[in-house]
Amino acid sequence: EICERREAWFASMADRQADTDPVTISRFLLELRGAVADDAIIAHSSGNVQAAIISEFPFYEPRTNLTTGGFSTMGWAYPAALGAKVAKPEKQVLAVIGDGDFSMTMQEMAFAVQHNIPVVACVLNNMGWQAIKDIQWDAFGEGRHIGVEFQTQDGEPYTPHFANVAREFGLHSERISRPEEIKPAIQRALATGRPALVEIMVNRTYPNSGTPATGWWDVPIPTYLEERRKQYEDARREEQL
């Protein structure tokens, strides 16, 4: 039964793995799995990236899944990947992180270059705290989000060009957005044998911005959203979505 449910789950990913530009996180993970060795070490921290890896990315070897788990500690993945590479220099090591997550500790690129630690940072850029935005939309309704998008004062989406920043730190770097670009870019980064960064512009349109939530998420609904509040209270009684 477990095997059947597992196969059904992976089959359900087909729509999220579609050929879109910008690519979905789900499609990125599909391409990434084919680009790295079975024993590659993957570090991840928080947000939609972590949620998708936990539920969609197959790990084939023990001690290759470095995660903060439910703590979702932002900024953890890149330094953790550097430490893992020092401990296991013979392994491929990648940090798979969102742009908000990476911004917390991106200065460690200097450390990576100083000590020539050849970790590949895969920065999935959706220009915001997309995991929180998705929760707000799911809980409160479309358009009911606040403080989660990186924008200029005139409301235009904003993001640093992380590939350019990484290049100035001394890393090999690329920025991509299409599915067919992923595997070659990852393999080029690994082949350099030095610190590298691949910035992937990813889909930021809910629900294709992440992966479906499962289980009970207790996000209280305001009473003025009467219908949603009733659904929340009914679900809370049953502890289900």
Walk me through the structure.
- With 241 residues, the protein is α/β, with parallel strands linked by helices.
- It has 10 helices and 6 strands.
- It has helices spanning 2-11, 25-35, 47-56, 77-87, 99-105, 109-114, 130-140, 162-169, 179-191, 226-238, and strands spanning 41-44, 65-67, 93-98, 120-125, 172-176, 196-201.
- Strands 2-1-3-4-6-5 form a 6-stranded parallel sheet, with helices on both faces.
- Helix 3 (47-56) links the parallel strand 1 and strand 2 (65-67).
- The chain is globular and about 55 Å long.
Question: How are the SSEs ordered, and which strands pair?
Answer:
Layout: H1 2-11, H2 25-35, E1 41-44, H3 47-56, E2 65-67, H4 77-87, E3 93-98, H5 99-105, H6 109-114, E4 120-125, H7 130-140, H8 162-169, E5 172-176, H9 179-191, E6 196-201, H10 226-238
Parallel strand pairs: 1-2, 1-3, 3-4, 4-6, 5-6
Largest sheet data: 6 strands, parallel
Overall form: globular
Separation of termini? 23 Å
Give a count of the beta strands, DSSP E runs of length 2 or more: 6
How much of the sequence is in beta strands? Answer: 5-15%
Q: Quote the average pLDDT.
A: 93
Cα-atom Rg, whole angstroms? 19 Å
Number of helices: 10
- The share of residues in helices is 40-55%
Oligomer: single chain
Series of secondary-structure elements, N-terminal to C-terminal: HHEHEHEHHEHHEHEH
Structural class: alpha/beta
Spans of at least 5 consecutive residues whose pLDDT stays below 50 are: none
Enumerate the strands of the largest sheet in spatial order, edge to edge or round the barrel.
2-1-3-4-6-5
